[in-house]
Amino acid sequence: MTTSENKFTFVKLDEKASEHIAAPKYSYWKSVFKKFFSSKVAIFLLIVLAGMVIMSLIHPLISGYSPLNAPNINNPSTWYNPPSAQLWFGTDNVGNSLFDAIWLGTRNSLMIAVVATAISTVIGVLVGMFWGYSKKMDAIMLNVYNVVANIPYLLLVIVLMYVLGRGIWQMIFSLSCTSWLSTAYFIRVQVMIIRDREYNLASECLGTPRTKVIFHNIFPYLISVIMTSLARDIPSFISYEVFLTYVGNGLSEKDASLGRMIQKYSAYMTSSPYLFWIPVAFSAIISVSIYVVGQTLADASDPRTHMV
Amino acid sequence: MKKYILSRIIKSIIALFVVLSIVIVMLFTLIPRANIFKNDTSIQRMKGDEKTSYMYSKWDELGYLDYLTFNEMCRASAEDVDACLAGDTDESAKVLKEYEDNGYTIAQFNNGSYYGYYEYSPFEILRNFYSHFIQIDHPNKVVDADNPDLERKYYIGSDENGIPAIMCSGCEYKYQVYFDGNFPFIHQNIVSLDFGTSYPTKVGIDTVKVIADGQGNAKLTEQTFPTGSVQNSPLIQHSCRYKPTSTLDRMDTTKFTDNYANCDSAYDSPSMISTSLLFGLVSLFLAYIIAIPAGIYMARKKGKLADKIGIVYINFLIAVPSLAFIFFVKQIGQSFGLPDKFPHYGFGDIRSYILPIIILALLSTSSLMMWTRRYMIDQSNADYVKFARAKGLSESEIFNRHILKNAIIPIVNQIPVSIVLTISGSVITETVFAIPGMGKMLPDSINMLNNNMVITLTFIFTGLSVFAVLVGDLLMTVIDPRIKLTEKGD
Fold it and tell me: Which of A 111-130 lie inside 8 A of B, CB atoms?
């Protein structure tokens, strides 16, 4: 076989191209999102979660529901209506729509968990980074940690709630009062692992201030660790809110929450089971979604998973 | 090593008392003291002066303040008591002025008589609490004006079953050290902790007794009393305390030859603390039996289907609120005919125990499985494993005899902590199933505003967990002698 020569043309020798190193383009955040969106379960749960968050933010504004109001209390025909096409989740013992109630409850439960997590994460990460880096601080903080870690957390939260009184902000304070210390300890261990790596020693030798080393060299490494702890904390705080309110040490009658609803409706567990099981299911769905989405995001934000 | 253990024990005790002090101060200062009467049924029938005097004497009893009636003030500090008691005289004005200068607030009842109260500062509250916290029994303890001939001595006697015991006359308790068939077999009444009395539930009973004594109906046993009479009686003779002569009745004198007639009764149901302990230990045993083999199996099949199912299960348990999980399992259990509340069948029926124990066990499996798997996988990359493989050992030999021995160390470290966690973790399960245990007592006593009970439970829970951490560390050095807790290694 002969090929006609006119199909080929000479290319001019490009000096620059031969110098170019063929490294793949890498953008951290692009890789994070690519990795995250490769998980179908995570995408599905993210949509569920986003839907629930948006609904719980908007719906209470429209419905105007308050657990203290019962406009239909004198109209027995509106009581205990099972779920139907008009009333998606049915009505409760005083004729209030459960659909309205559940979004307000979800909003409060979510808010408590998110704010408590935010407080304990911000304080925990800040303290933890310095704790892991400074040996002097380590000696003091370890003793403090040993005292606090010895107290059963549940006991502490219950006693604090009891002392401070019932309410959303009291609960947020009780939950985050000592939980930041365990986040800080978790971060301390991670910081200690990478503290003495060569690039940090080099930075120190070159005279980089400690604060700058901590925020520029160490903090980026911690993102996936922080994500993991976020994904664990939010569901556990939801769980604490639900439990504390259920046993009667949490929120009071005037605040709606998932725990409050589970407690209030547990009396109708056999007569109108939907009243009880819908809030239980909501608390489970929202916790699992946050946990799975958070874990997937934590995996995706770890640069070591971007290699392949 | 001894020095290290000693310093750890001292640190633990300090930690315990720091926590206890903080809780006491918070309970006494941050909760408005008028709140404690919310659940008191007897105060609801009172009004006027009767109510005021009841409230102040209750606060005095609970340690909020020092309350004195006009009579008490006169008797305590007037030079001429009769002139003081007579009412608006110079003498009484002088006494009231004296108390007012000492920090007392003087007020008047509606009927015109005076009373005074002194509110303790947080420091004084702590001092008062700790001054009677540890009670030591001694032969000069009993003060009884009606019984001047009471002997003051220790002696060796024998109890109703003829077993020797160290006994005491003049002490609060008759039996100081005695033996019986119940764990821990040797018992003492010499040192006891005083947390005050329970209020407003179980009024007047020591909080420790509420938790540690049996529940349910009195249990009668045939026993011989010191007088020689044989009766069916619920009394526990080992627990007999001194009863002032003025309160002794005929019932007492038919049984006892001396004043030690104030005895506790035996009940047919176990105490709160032993109920919680039973549930905790059985469920923990079950959790270890399930979780460790499961974790090992997951580590062996890393990345395969079994591992993935296990991870989904672990994540499910971590993410789902424990209350939702408990109700979910409970619903499944009920369809098998198991009771939804513990008191439904009570202590005597095995069906009452099945569901709570399964739930408690399942709740603690997730972290156990996760850590077992983690430690096994971490160990399986070690050099000694490669060497074992090169020697030609089978996989099961490598996993069960080499890796497991190394991976089990941190798990053993966790065992005492887990035991304590099941006791406090059962707060949730006990509340849902209405099990009369210590875990349920915590939210219950808070709902009833029973401050002394909250202090007692704080002490028990914190004390247990402080020492569990210590025991866990020591256990680790026993299992693996290479581990040194001190830097020097001595």
Answer: none
Spatial separation of the C-alpha atoms in residues A183 and A225, rounded to whole Å? 10
Query: ipTM score of the complex?
Result: 0.78
Q: For chain B, give every domain's residue range.
A: 19-131, 135-193+220-265, 272-439
The pLDDT of residue A39 is above 90: no
pLDDT of residue A45: 92
CATH of B272-439, one of 3.40.30.10, 1.10.3720.10, 3.40.720.10, 3.40.50.11540: 1.10.3720.10
Chain B, window 305-324: residues with a beta carbon less than 8 angstroms from a chain A beta carbon:
315-316, 318-324
Whether residues A162 and B31 touch (CB distance < 8 A) is answered with yes
Interface test with B, best of A135, A243, A264 (most B CBs within 10 A): A243
Above 50 in pLDDT, residue B489?
no
Chain A interface, best mutation among B318, B323, B335, by max A CB count within 10 A: B323
CB A123 within 8 A of CB A180: yes
Which residues of chain B does A247 touch, with a Cβ-Cβ cutoff of 8 Å? 427-428, 431, 443
How far apart (Å, rounded) are the C-alpha atoms in residues A248 and B317? Answer: 24
* pLDDT at residue B490, as a whole number: 43
- Entry field: residues in chain A: 308
- pLDDT higher than threshold 90 for residue B400: no
pLDDT digits (tens, 9 = 90+) for B179-192: 887 767 888 888 88
Looking at per-residue pLDDT, the higher value among B423 and A97 belongs to: A97
Helix ranges (DSSP H) in B380-450: 383-391, 395-397, 404-433, 438-447
Q: What is the rounded average pLDDT of the residues A6-21?
A: 79
Identify whether the C-beta of residue A298 lies closer than 8 Å to the C-beta of residue A231: yes
> Which stretches of B144-298 are assigned E, i.e. beta strand?
153-158, 164-169, 175-179, 186-188, 191-193, 215-218, 221-224, 230-233, 241-242, 260-262, 267-269
| B38 CB within 8 Å of a chain A CB | no
Looking at residue B424, what is its pLDDT? 59
| Phi/psi of residue B215, nearest 5 degrees | -125, 170
Helix H or strand E segment including B70? helix B70-77
Considering chain B, what percentage of its residues have pLDDT values greater than 90? 7
Q: What is the pLDDT of residue A4?
A: 66
Q: Regarding beta strands B230-233 and B175-179, do their DSSP bridges make them parallel or antiparallel, or are they unpaired?
A: unpaired
Which are the contacts of B179, defined by CB distance < 8 A and separation ≥ 6?
B163, B164, B165, B185, B186, B187
Q: What is the mean pLDDT of chain B?
A: 85
- Determine phi and psi for B265, rounding to 5 degrees: -105, 155
Percent of chain B with pLDDT over 70: 97
Closest-CA residue of chain B to A150: B466
pTM of the model: 0.83
Bridge partners of B106? B116
Q: CB–CB of B359/B326 below 8 Å?
A: yes
Q: Write out pLDDT tens, residues A199-256.
A: 888 988 999 888 888 888 888 888 888 888 888 889 989 888 888 888 888 888 888 8
Helix (H) or strand (E) holding B67: strand B65-69
Instruction: Return the SS3 of A46.
Output: helix
Instruction: Flag if B320 and A246 touch (Cβ within 8 Å).
Output: no
Token representation of residue B257: 């030859």
B375-386 pLDDT, tens digit each? 888 888 888 888
Q: What is the pLDDT of residue A3?
A: 60
Give contacts of A151 with chain B, Cβ < 8 Å. Answer: 19, 461-462, 465
Q: Where in B364-480 does DSSP place strands (E)?
A: none
Q: Does A185 touch chain B (CB under 8 A)?
A: no
Contacts of A281 in chain B (CB under 8 A): 324
* Nearest one of B301, B336, B303, B483 to B409, comparing CA atoms: B483
How much is the pLDDT for B294?
A: 93
Chain A: give the shortest CA distance to residue B332, in Å: 14
